[in-house]
Write a structure and sequence with these properties.
The chain is α/β, with parallel strands linked by helices and about 375 residues long. The protein folds into 2 domains: about 240 residues, Aspartate Aminotransferase, domain 2 (3-Layer(aba) Sandwich), CATH 3.40.640; about 120 residues, Aspartate Aminotransferase, domain 1. Helix content is about 40%, strand content about 15%. The protein has 13 helices and 14 strands. The strands form 4 sheets. A 7-stranded mixed β-sheet has the order 1-9-8-5-4-2-3, with helices on both faces. Helix 3 packs parallel to helix 9. The longest helix has 19 residues. It is globular and about 65 Å long. The relative contact order is 0.17.
């Protein structure tokens, strides 16, 4: 990579910064001779729960498994309805269907790109007309911005529905003084390498305040065992391994600093680009964004992406096609009502470079390209 190239994302830089500590953690885990569900996993579960302010948490194999296991642990059964958004990674919907459920999709707020509580209410009224009731609501804290959890929790409680937070992109984000992942009946995290807290491979986590939900999670992640080789529940094989847990323990110590760096870079983008016609991300009342991605919008997206590419600046689109419009789901009524904001946003969004190791001068250069050649 030349000095002039600015990648969209580069997790390897984060690993290099911590190489000595990661090497030590790797050797500690390897030398223990215990490679699955040993001390490193137990300690990471304890430390991440402490970080979240939660009493219980379970490490699993990846973020998709985390959503699926969270659903099963709160009592979600085949045929049950889970309401979520179409503006998300398809993993959210995949996890619902793997749990045997029926996904129903609602629209998003144009400002935060997260679940719109009013559209959620309208969708539930449509379900009422059909004699159907949602079992679970899954707000997605997309790009690192918290969903409006207080309203969503109130709606869920009024309908006797569980809330499973999808926190895959929001490690450390805060809503009304509480970290995301500490509001719902259960909450799912991903540790994919590019996440704010990323492993050196796949990994996931489920947090909960409920001892019974925790007990089911512990069993379900390993064949439903409540004692070795005895399956009390129908379970799966979804275990966070010792090596990944050891790596995550090192990186967890840096998470707050990394998130503050992301926020500083986002503030610089906003300062430099506020005079353009780009629609820049904002923080809604009570929300503390952790900028897993820095997502701008423009009706001239293709021209902007071309401009950035011609100047060796990486970019991406998260996500170009809403789930309900993807070919795998064509002909299936996942949305009871139109999703106009979701569809509008999907045609305009572009993710600019964002990771903690970006230098201030690199952000300045991205902005200079836009200011000189875009406006």
């Amino acid at each position: 990579m030349s000095e002039l190239e600015i990648p969209f994302s580069s997790p390897i830089l984060g690993y290099r910064e911590l190489k000595a500590d990661l090497d030590e953690a790797f050797l500690r885990a390897a030398d223990s001779g215990w490679y699955i569900l040993g001390k490193e996993v137990r300690e990471f579960e304890r430390e991440f729960c402490h970080y979240l302010g939660m009493p219980y948490g379970v490490g699993v194999a990846n973020g998709t498994d985390a959503v699926e296991l969270a659903l099963k642990a709160v009592g979600f059964s085949p045929g049950d309805i889970a309401i979520t958004v179409a503006h998300t990674a398809v993993a959210t919907i995949s996890a619902i269907e793997r749990a045997g459920g029926v996904p129903v999709l609602v629209d998003i707020q144009e400002e935060s790109y997260c679940m719109d509580p009013e559209h959620l209410r309208e969708t539930i009224r449509e379900l009422d007309k059909k004699g159907l009731t949602p079992k679970v609501i899954i707000p997605v804290h997309i790009y690192g911005h918290p969903a409006p959890l207080q309203e969503i929790m109130e709606i869920a409680q009024s309908r006797g529905a569980f809330v499973v937070e999808d926190c895959a992109q929001a490690h450390g984000a805060v809503y009304r003084g509480k970290k995301v992942g500490s509001w719902g009946d259960a909450s799912a995290f991903s540790f994919y390498p590019t996440k704010n807290l990323g492993a050196l491979g796949d990994g996931g986590f489920v947090s909960t305040t409920s001892q019974p939900v925790y007990d089911r999670l512990v069993a379900i992640r390993q064949y439903g065992w409540t004692e070795r080789y005895i399956s009390t529940y129908v379970g799966v094989n979804s275990r966070l391994d010792e090596i990944q847990a050891a790596m995550l323990r090192v990186k967890l110590k840096r998470l707050e600093d990394d998130n503050q760096r992301r926020r500083a870079l986002a503030a610089l983008y906003r300062e430099r680009l506020s005079g353009t016609d780009l629609i820049l991300p904002t923080e809604q009342e009570g929300a503390e964004h952790v900028y897993h991605l820095y997502v701008a919008r423009t009706v001239n997206r293709d021209r902007l992406i071309k401009l950035l590419s011609e100047n060796s600046v990486g970019s991406a689109i998260h996500y170009p096609v809403p789930v309900h419009q993807q070919s795998a789901y064509s002909g299936r009524s996942l949305n009871l009502l139109p999703l106009p904001i979701t569809e509008k946003v999907a045609s305009e969004i572009v993710s600019l470079p964002m990771f903690p190791q970006l230098a201030t001068m690199q952000i300045e250069r991205v902005c200079e390209v836009i200011l000189k050649k875009w406006t």
